[in-house]
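Figure 6 in text form: structure in, sequence out.
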């Protein structure tokens, strides 16, 4: 969850919005992030009977649980909080499933969970997930403090304001990470692939849940990014397409990179716009092996050529969308292998406002493939430049002459990527590195101290982020693919 978790509120019965869990993430967010997702509509098809009907004898296996409760209540050396005991018992059952996508949320956690599909919330803007007792970033939200700070998929958040997150659920982590706009939160982060953890301080902000961003280039190729499948995403996309059509759109790049999933009904509605009528969108398999096929029934289809962009942050409902586009619509998939989440969750609220989200089924691609923990391989693999994967530099740290660290090595790579040669890239801040920093400061109208910290560090990361956007190799390959397709069609 993230501040965003995945999963969607329900009610006593399976939610009409079963979300393909956005990985134990609420939306932080750390939004939707949380990402983080719930599947919709299908819960009704797989809802089972209640465990015990009124008047029936309670399950015999609960006798041990009742006995333990009675002994603690009667004999514990201090007064016990009865609500806490019950919550703990439910948490224990969920934890015993060893399923990162099943979770129990008390009333406070559930309230934040419900906010994950609202118009906005306050936090850092990242989807997070619990995995093997650790909190992992699924993806940052576009334009959020988390994205600007450089948090990336698979980074691990070890502590928040000095409090360890080890052993916490994503719901519990979200409560620590979220906070009022303008307040600061200090995170201890283990960047993916890095040996040493690092600390970063982020300023929380209001995270609007705007999920579709569209632009069109001079060649009339529209680039439409879908950052999550939230409550109004399908409507946002339809409006964006109308706007692009009015501007002369001849082809379209649909970008679900860093999209952690969301509401399945939205993913279905969007996929229906592209997959031919009668073709399979995806399949759902229950715990008895019974399969149900979801089929496209929309007669109005987008007529312009389309390609889809994916990466390791594309998960859950994004993968349902990508798989259907690939297997049922014949649309090329470009980028990197997706996250790999192939299970379906439903969420139910208890009378006291708490909430339980749990896995009810597998989802399969139109061809019957289960992509869980495997992901979807793109038709055209394309990586971003190496500098796009550099980790965050903390503006609070001072990197200066004679410093030796992994952070210095990261800074050297950033300087090199931006055209300021730092000498040998070895993690040692020598005279050449100092000169590179001074040259960068001069170009940026910052006092030339030769020390990398504060304003200089922030500007360095900002310039690098802009360079990544300008040199988006995956997006460019998508545009080239559409050009070639149109050329072939014309000939």
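Output sequence:
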């Amino acid at each position: 969850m993230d501040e965003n978790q995945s999963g969607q509120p329900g009610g006593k019965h399976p939610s009409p919005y079963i979300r393909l869990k956005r990985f134990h993430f609420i939306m932080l967010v750390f939004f939707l992030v949380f990402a983080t997702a719930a599947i919709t509509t299908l819960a009704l098809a797989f809802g089972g009977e209640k465990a015990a009907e009124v008047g029936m004898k309670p399950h015999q296996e609960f006798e041990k649980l009742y006995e333990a409760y009675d002994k603690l209540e009667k004999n514990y050396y201090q007064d016990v909080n009865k609500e806490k005991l019950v919550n703990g018992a439910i948490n224990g059952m969920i934890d015993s499933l060893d399923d990162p996508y099943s979770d129990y949320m008390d009333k406070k956690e559930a309230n934040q969970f419900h906010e994950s599909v609202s118009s906005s919330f306050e936090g850092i803007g990242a989807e997070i997930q619990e995995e093997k007792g650790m909190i992992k970033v699924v993806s940052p939200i576009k334009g959020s403090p988390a994205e600007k700070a450089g948090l990336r998929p698979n980074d691990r958040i070890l502590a928040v304001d000095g409090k360890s997150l080890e052993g916490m659920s994503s719901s519990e982590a979200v409560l620590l990470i979220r906070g009022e706009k303008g307040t600061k939160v200090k995170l201890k982060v283990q960047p993916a692939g890095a040996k040493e953890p690092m600390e970063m301080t982020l300023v929380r902000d209001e995270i609007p849940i705007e999920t579709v961003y569209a632009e069109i280039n001079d060649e009339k190729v529209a680039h439409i990014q879908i950052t999550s499948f939230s409550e109004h995403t399908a409507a946002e996309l339809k409006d964006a397409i109308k706007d692009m059509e009015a501007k002369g759109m001849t082809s379209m790049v649909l970008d679900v990179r860093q999209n952690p999933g969301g509401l399945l009904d939205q993913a279905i509605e969007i996929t229906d716009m592209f997959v031919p009528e009668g073709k399979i969108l995806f399949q759902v398999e229950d715990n008895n092996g019974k399969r149900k096929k979801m089929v496209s029934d929309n007669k109005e289809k987008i007529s312009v050529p389309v390609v889809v962009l994916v990466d390791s942050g594309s998960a859950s409902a994004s993968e349902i969308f990508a798989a259907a586009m690939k297997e049922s619509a014949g649309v090329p998939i470009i980028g990197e292998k997706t996250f790999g989440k192939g299970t379906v969750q439903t969420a139910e609220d208890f009378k006291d406002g708490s909430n339980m989200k749990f896995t009810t089924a597998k989802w399969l691609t139109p061809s019957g493939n289960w992509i869980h923990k495997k992901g979807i391989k793109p038709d055209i693999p394309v990586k971003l430049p190496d500098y796009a994967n550099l980790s965050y530099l903390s503006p609070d740290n001072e990197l200066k002459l004679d410093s030796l660290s992994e952070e210095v090595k990261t800074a050297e790579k950033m300087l090199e990527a931006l055209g300021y040669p730092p000498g040998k890239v070895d993690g040692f801040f020598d005279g050449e590195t100092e000169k590179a920093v001074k040259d960068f400061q001069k170009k940026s109208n910052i006092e030339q101290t030769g020390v990398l910290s504060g304003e200089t560090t922030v500007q360095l990361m900002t310039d690098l982020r802009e360079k990544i956007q300008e040199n988006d190799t995956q997006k460019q390959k998508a545009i080239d693919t559409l050009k070639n397709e149109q050329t072939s069609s014309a000939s």
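Caption detail: The longest strand covers residues 355-364.
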